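Supplementary Data S3. Sequence and structure tokens for construct A.
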Amino acid sequence: MRMKKLPIIILICLFSASWVQAEPLHITFDPASRPGGSIGIDSWTENGIFFTGPNGFGHSDSGKEARPDNGTAYLSFAIGPPQTLMIQSIDSTPFQLFSVDLAEYSILFDRPKDITFIGHKNDGTTVTQDFTL
């Protein structure tokens, strides 16, 4: 049985009180952990942003036939119980998630998939945004 994977490519803006103007950080997940293929990893750090999850995730290279491809590597998660991906700055600087590119890969299980983002604000409140792929 094939597993459904949800590749994620993320664009993040970081804001700090000491910055006059924040520039967006483009997180591309490059270079791939296994050029031309995929491998399971526990975490990923890029441009001061740390990604981790309790069950790890796949890290795949771009350019693979019948897979999502926007020219960069991506993270993927197997079908099953809900998966968690924690995104945080390595120095605890607050940041704003500006944009995210989500793709559902499945030719066998083409059912909609719900994705929920939960943001934790400095004042202790949360912001939630749901997407359906």
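Construct B, processed identically:
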Amino acid sequence: MDYYNSFLDQYLTSWYPTTTINPTSTISISSIDPTNTAGLALTFLNLQHQIQTETNSISLYYLSRNARGAAATYTILRIQQILQTAAATATQQLPQITEELVNATLNLKQLEWDSNLYAMNLSVPFNLLFGILFILIMFYQIGICAWFKDFYFSICMVCGCLLEFIGYIARTVAHYSYSDPNLYLCQIICLTIAPAFIMMSIYYLLAKLVVIHGLQYSILSPIQLSYIFIIFDVLSLVIQAIGGAIAAINLRMLRNSNVGSYIMLSGIAFQAFSMTVYILFLMDFLIRVFKIPNKSFQLFRFIRFLFGSNEMRQEFEISYNSKFRPIREKQIFNYMPLFIMISVLFVYVRCIYRVIELSQGWRGFLITHEEYVLTLDALMVLLCVLIYVLFHPGLIFNKMNIPLKKKKLKDIEMKNEVRSTPISQPYYSSRLRLPEKSTVSSTISSFDKSTIINSRFDSPSF
């Protein structure tokens, strides 16, 4: 045992209990099976070998924690052996023995708390509640997708809700296993990349609005808008996934995970940048749709327009694409620009929070206080997807084909033009009008009959 004491004195940092025990307080004293003594000796030998060869500071930190645990365990075993002897019952030795036993127990409890990867007690009710809500919304999106055949929007939303569900269920389970790195990485990666899928579905809606109102109201074509922002979102998703993978590998190998954290941070920052650009394009589109030519912009009228004023809609209806008028006549469609803006702002707040959170590190103030995670992340994303429970595009478009490519738009316009022609009237009649019978008769009667006869029988001149 003297060899182990010298080893611990050389490599183990000092630890002093921070908890003050008053005479009236009680504490559960740890008890260890004496048969573990042989295993403890082997642990000391392994620690000695690893500490002498290890150079990584993170690995040395974990090894020192193991050494602390071994030292506290050894202290408890030694005191248990002393208490088994008759000499230990001496009154003068009991205070010292009790103090050492309490300190060793507090040391083990502190080590157990230090192994908490979240540095807090995770809330089971709230995390479970968010997990249940996200899975219910996911099933709703699947049902809407099957009914209205709105595949792209619903599939992206389903992926986002599924990742949110996995993340919060992992946090719920982690309450009972807070030192499990698999659960920690599962929840942090899933909750980080989930909003990227949700934003993919929202980006698509701006292109649909451009087609429904008219191509002249957007700087870019609908297909260009879709490609640009979806590519932006995929890039941010890839960056975040790479950062999460690097952080996971480093964490498993007991290495510094700051590189992975910074990559994840840059991915979220890029996502916030793409959302900012999207909001600018959305605002430019809405102003173009609303603005009266040769008149200044009026904020109050614009707000009325966003809140679905029928009077405002009727005023501008004549300038919109007539092919999609049935969609615009739905009262729910009038609120579509407003709920798109609100949903984007919810995710935008969440992204700004995540940028600040990760910039503080894995032991920063925000990430170690769950009330901020639940309100500025979970609640923001939940409110975003709840909007599309009430205002799902399938309920608005109702299976109507809204193509984004110009060629398909022209094909639809030609089909609509053919269908709009009355069946009793030939298609060419709108372009070629034959003279009426009365007009022909009056024209013939105006000519002299002799002129007609002469024109028939006169020989032609060469």
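The two ends are 139 Å apart (CA to CA). The chain has two domains: 2-19+29-114, 124-415.
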